[in-house]
Structures are given as C-alpha cells and as structure tokens.
Amino acid sequence: MKEQLTTRQKEVLSFIQRFRELHGYVPSYREIARHFSVNVRAIYDVLNALKEKGYIRHSPHKSRALEIVEEDPPPVVYLPLVGEVAAGKPLLAEEHIEGEVVVPESFLPRGGGRFFVLRVKGESMEGAGILKGDLAIIREQDWAVDGEIVVALLEENATLKRFFKEKHRIRLESSHPSYPPIYTTQVKILGKLVSIVRTYE
C-alpha cells in the first residue's frame, strides 16, 4: 500500500493528472511551479516526495520526464450467468448459460471451488438483504449447514432459501413474512450463496 500524501502533494498530483487528461502529456516542472505560484525548487521537493511514495516516476528518455504510476486494476474473474433463481415462488431454473458476469476476485471466498451466478427474482429474501434483480454468486456444493442460504432444487424448480435440517425433513425458509417455509424430504442442494452483486441502473 502506498504512503499517504500531504495536502500539497495531493494538489500537485491532481494537477498533473488533470493536465495530462487535458493535453495528452504531463506538465513540465516550470508549468507546475507556475500553476502553484512557487519556484521550481519548491515543486522539485514535492515531486521527489511523490516519487519516493510511488505515485510518479522519472523517465529520463522522454522529453517530459514525469510519468504517473498507474494503479494495477484489481483482479477479476468471469463467472457464468445461469438462468434465474426464484426468491419466492419457485421458478424453473434455466439450464443454459446466458452469459458471463465479471466480478472482483475479492468477492469470492478463499479456498477455491467452482462458482456461478444466478439472478434473483422475487421478494422472499428481502429480510436477508437480497433483492429482486440482484446477482447471487453461488459456490457449487451439494451440502449445507443449518442457517446457510442455498440454491435448492425441488423437482425441476430452483429457489434461494435459508436451509435447515429437521429430524425427518428439510425446511427451506424465506426472509419475508408473506412467504411460508417450504418443507420437503426431496431436495437437492446446488450451491451456497457467497456474495451478492447489485447495480442501481
């Protein structure tokens, strides 16, 4: 992680970035000094601090020697988008892959595994913060611990519910008072919810 900047260092770095966006190249030392109404020596000290902290570097083979050190983008993964999940009344799950969803690698838990994405349809999991239209990131697994949110297959219908194992049956519980629990002895766990992706467009 890079060191924090002082107020002046932030101002100078911001000016360099804006100048480059406007002109297509970075400003010279004199242009920076003129913008801040200081002498070149003062700017030289600020730029040296920015170099030491890793925000800019010196490129001796270029006519304008300053170069902004770009941040590496966070690693991402491409997950298959598989149909929809009915968060409420079970909906027939599409078996084909509709596309791909790009998500930050940090959205996935450590430990590996295979993951896929399902789009939530319905309101039964609103109490758990899962809304209609959300993208549910699921880790493929055929087991669950009590209280975990899973994708469960009932005959040919998939639904997103909280899993509980009772003495002689399975209880699939919603997080909305309008949706009663589903009790069954025949259910297949397709995976466990690990993350939710939401857009606001």
From TrEMBL:
Keyword 4Fe-4S in annotation: no
Site description Cleavage, residues in chain: A87, G88
Gene Ontology molecular function terms on file: DNA binding; serine-type endopeptidase activity
Assigned keywords, A-Z: Autocatalytic cleavage, DNA damage, DNA repair, DNA replication, DNA-binding, Hydrolase, Repressor, SOS response, Transcription, Transcription regulation
GO biological process, one term: negative regulation of DNA-templated transcription
Residues annotated as domain LexA repressor DNA-binding: 3-65
Role of this protein: Represses a number of genes involved in the response to DNA damage (SOS response), including recA and lexA. In the presence of single-stranded DNA, RecA interacts with LexA causing an autocatalytic cleavage which disrupts the DNA-binding part of LexA, leading to derepression of the SOS regulon and eventually DNA repair.
NCBIfam families per the UniProt record, alphabetical: lexA (TIGR00498)
This protein's record includes keyword DNA repair: yes
Name this protein carries in UniProt: LexA repressor
EC assignment: 3.4.21.88
Active site (UniProt): S124 (for autocatalytic cleavage activity), K161 (for autocatalytic cleavage activity)
Species name: Winmispira thermophila (strain ATCC 700085 / DSM 6578 / Z-1203)
Ranges where the Peptidase S24/S26A/S26B/S26C domain occurs: 80-194
Lineage: Bacteria, Pseudomonadati, Spirochaetota, Spirochaetia, Winmispirales
Family to which the UniProt record says this protein belongs: Belongs to the peptidase S24 family.
InterPro entries per record: LexA, LexA-like, LexA/Signal_pep-like_sf, LexA_DNA-bd_dom, LexA_repressor, Peptidase_S24_LexA, Peptidase_S24_S26A/B/C, WH-like_DNA-bd_sf
The protein's assembly and partners: Homodimer.
EC supergroup of this enzyme: hydrolase
